[in-house]
Each structure stands twice: as C-alpha cells, then as structure tokens.
Design brief:
CATH topology of one domain: Anthranilate synthase
Structural class: alpha+beta
Radius of gyration: 21 Å
Helix content: 25-40%
Number of strands: 21
Shape: globular
CATH class of one domain: Alpha Beta
C-alpha cells in the first residue's frame, strides 16, 4: 500500500507528482480504497475506468449564491501555485479536486472541493498514481495494493423522510394543477428516505455494490455523498464539451421482451417526450454561449439501466471561450432535468411543495483538474452520510412532473429510482 504524504498545511502550496502505473497489474479501482470514513474516500468510476482517491491534502467549502464562483477562484489559485511533476499528462492527472454542490443556493449543505492525498486513475490502457502534499517533499511512490474487504451494513432500516409517499403524491397533484393553470411547463419534485444502521456505513461496500449492478453509471463518492448517476451534466476535455440529458423514465419489469415493448412506448410517449424536450433545450441554451459547432440530436435514444429506462440525448459542442468544466457546470445548474421550466418558477414550486432541503442531491458532483478539464455529473441515485452520525443516511429520488403526470405513477417511479441505493445497502450478494 502507498505511504501517505504528510497532513495538509493550508498555508503552503500543493506539491503534486503523477507517475504512470501498469494498468494490467492494477486490479479494480474500487478495490484499492482503504478503510476510512466516508468523507475521506473519493470515487468517479464507470465500467472500471476513472479515478479513486483517499485522504485530504486540501479542501475548501463555500456557501450561498456565490459558491460556484468562490470555489472556481479558489481552485484556479490552488492549481496555478502548485508545484507539479506530471509524467503522464492526460486529463485527470496532476492536481485534481473532487467536488459536490448543494442544489439550492440557500442550503446549509454548501459546496466543497477536496484534493485527495492519494489518487489512482485508469483510462483505457493507461493508469497513473498521484500523490499530493503541502510540505516540501513527497514520500516515496509505490504501487497501491488491494485493501481489506469492506463490511456489509448491519441492521438496516428504512423510514419515511421529510414527506410520506401519500403526502408526496399530493404535492405531485398540486404541481399538475399549477402546470395546467399555465404557471409553468415542468417541475421536478424529489423525496427522501431515512436509513439507519447499527454501525457506521462502509462506503466501499456501497460503491462496489453500485459498480457491480450499474456499470454504465458514474459511481461517485465525494465528501460523504455516495451514488451512481446515469446523467453527465458536462464533460470538458481538450476543447470538446459533452452533456448527457436524461428525462422521461419508465420502470423495468425484468422480462426482456416486455421491457423492449416498454422502451418503444417510452420513445413514443408524448408526456415523456415533452419532459425530455424541456431538459434538452435548457442544456443547449446554457452551453450555447460557451460553444460552437453544437450538435443537438432531434430524437432521443432509450438508455437501459437495470431498474429503469430513460429517454437520453447527448449534446456536444466545441469550447470557444476557455471556460473551465466547473464554470460550465455552474452555467448548466439547475437544468430542467432536476428543476423544471421556466427555471425560476419551477424553483419556487419546489420550495413550496417539496418540504425538505435537498442538500447536495441533484447538484453537480465530479472532478476538475489543473487545466480546467473535468467531468461533472448530477448527483442522482445517491445517499448522504450524516457526518455527525455515520450510521445514518438520507436517500433521494426525484421525478419530472408535466401536465400528463399521474401522482401514483410518479410515486412508483420514485420508488424505482430508490432501488439502486436500497439494494446497495441490503441485498445479500457476495463481493469479489
């Protein structure tokens, strides 16, 4: 196992070294994470590729409407003053910060960027190790080893969160009324579940379970937020910008032939196509000032996940103004996929009807490197580990409400979206 750099000294510049590793000898990224408190483990992994990290070399938290700007400036200053030796040179190498942001400007959850002390990454046949310190020297670099197996959660119980399913269905009905009164076109309403366990959750168990069952999602861990999001808010890499938009959902049955028929009905559903169109339009309009040569497909495709299927569209463009991935995430948040249309009105309806603070659910989550490249997903299919009581979590799910929405159907859809996290905490499947 790699020895760690000295604890962070926020008054000193970062000292960063990245070296190549043999990808074939590395093993599964998530198997490298050592036992640690959830806030100290970091993950951004999809289909075996991405990055994991542990320990905190440096971190900064911001609150309020300027949380994005404050963290952008902090990261620009931190990365520009770092002493870097990078022997790999690809995106995600050198100085990297993982981040998560509260959905609402007024949320006490705030937003945080964290620089891990140790980071291991893999992309294709390339792999790398980054060590970070704020002291004058780094400890010797060695290949990371496989960590001890994680322990499954014990005595897991679920209970209603801020709102019961019945009351939440009433909120959906009220939202449909407002939409039919032409107050707005779409609103996304979320609900939460309380989870309690007899001992602190081992984040590694949750992450590895999610990666096993949902390998086409981005499995993330940032500052106590754990999940597997299917939605890429924005990726920026060497001038190419990509955003994956998901809106419009149908629950899978487990019967492949029946699910194929359901996928066809989803692709033809006027209600779901309407919801999807709002979301795609909001993303294209937000990226437009920063990009040229934008490609916005006219027709969505159906993304198949183990528990649900979504209408999906990949929007791409060429960056023209040098905006960082974090600035692009700020421009996109909140998209119609997690808020609604028009944004300001939908946000007011969310505050009026949801009856809870979303925290960092539905906010951007991901990473940024020293050049500004990075990947930011939307924190969906996720749970928040209570830092004061790590045997307690909140799980979240949300649904897009339009004029054709049925409250009971939306409750069923939200239940389906809670399945990944519920199963990650309870289903008895052996880990390898």
């Amino acid at each position: 196992m790699t020895s760690l750099p000295a604890p962070a000294d926020v008054g000193a510049p970062l000292v960063v070294r990245t070296v190549p590793l043999a990808a074939d000898d590395l093993g599964a990224l998530l198997s490298l994470l050592p036992p640690a408190d959830a806030p100290e483990l970091f993950s951004w992994v999809r289909r075996g590729e991405g990055m994991v990290g542990w320990g905190r070399a440096l971190a900064h938290t911001a609150y309020g409407p300027e949380r994005f700007a404050e963290l952008r400036h902090w990261w620009a200053d931190t990365a520009s003053s770092a002493v870097v030796r990078n022997e790999v040179g690809s995106p995600g190498t050198g100085p990297v910060a993982f981040g998560s942001f509260a959905y609402a400007a007024g949320s006490p959850a705030g937003a945080t960027l964290v620089v891990p002390r140790v980071l291991v990454g893999r992309r294709g046949d390339r792999a790398w190790l980054t060590l970070v310190s704020t002291g004058p020297e780094l400890t010797a670099i060695g290949a990371p080893g496989v960590a001890p197996e994680p322990a499954p959660p014990q005595d897991v119980t679920f209970s209603d969160g801020a709102t019961s399913p019945t009351r939440w269905a009433g909120a959906v009905a009220r939202a449909v009324e407002l939409i039919t009164q032409d107050r707005l076109d779409k609103v996304v309403l979320a609900r939460d579940l309380e989870v309690r366990m007899s001992s602190p959750v081992d984040a590694r168990w949750v992450l590895r379970r999610l990666a096993e069952r949902y390998d086409n999602t981005w499995v993330f861990s940032v500052d106590g937020l754990l999940g597997a999001t299917p939605e890429m808010l924005v990726r920026s890499e060497k001038g190419l910008v990509t955003s994956r938009v998901l809106a419009g959902t149908i629950r899978r049955t487990g019967d492949d032939e029946h699910d194929l028929a359901l996928a066809g009905s989803l692709a033809r559903s006027s209600k779901d196509l309407e919801e999807h169109e709002y979301a795609v339009r909001s993303v294209a309009e937000a990226l437009g000032p920063h990009c040229s040569s934008m490609n916005v497909p006219e027709t969505p495709f159906v993304l198949h996940l183990p528990n649900v299927m979504h209408l999906a569209t990949d929007v791409t463009g060429v960056l023209v103004d040098g905006a960082s991935s974090l600035l692009l995430a700020e421009a996109l948040h909140p998209s119609a996929a997690v808020c609604g249309t028009p944004t300001a009105v939908a946000d007011e309806v969310i505050s009026e009807l949801e009856g809870m603070d979303r925290g960092r659910y539905a906010g951007p989550v991901g990473w940024i490197d020293g050049s500004g490249d990075g990947e930011w997903g939307i924190a969906l299919r996720c749970g928040w580990v209570d830092p004061e009581e790590p045997s307690r979590m909140r799980l979240f799910a949300g649904c897009g409400i339009v004029a054709g929405s049925d409250p009971e159907d939306e409750v069923a859809e939200s239940d389906a979206k809670l399945i990944p996290m519920r199963d990650a905490l309870t289903a008895p499947v052996a880990l390898s």
